[in-house]
User: Fold PEGA domain-containing protein from Thiospirochaeta perfilievii.
Amino acid sequence: MTSGDNNLSRTMKFELKPLESDFINLDTLPSGASIYYGSRYMGTTPLDIPKYSFAQKLTISLDGYLDKSLIIDQKSISRTIKLKAGVVDKESNYILKKNRFYRNTAIFSFSLAIPLFLGTQGDNINSSVYNISIGNAFFWGINLFIDLFRYLKAAELSVE
Assistant:
């Protein structure tokens, strides 16, 4: 190496990326809403919520506003959620759940009647319409039982 080589300069380039946070910030309009994970109180907005490796269903609640459900996971970003004004009283909730249960009972009955009718038509038992109808009946049956549970829970709350 000669003395003239000491003046050589080297350039290095670095690409900087922002650090990914293990938290997301949730805020509401208006602020001060309570956030729950299941029945566990997490705090009031604005609030930093830890990200978990699995999806979490949060409930945001503020007096005078309708509750809001939110699912967050690893891909979720910080956000501000606008709450909708209104109060759902127990009796209105009961009527809403009862009507939904009755509607789904009718849909389930109809979706069950189609495969039963097709099953009596001989060779149609292997048809795609028959298989789709069985799938629909199964789906609406599960939906019916979920709505039955919600209806009974709403009825229980309306009595209190």
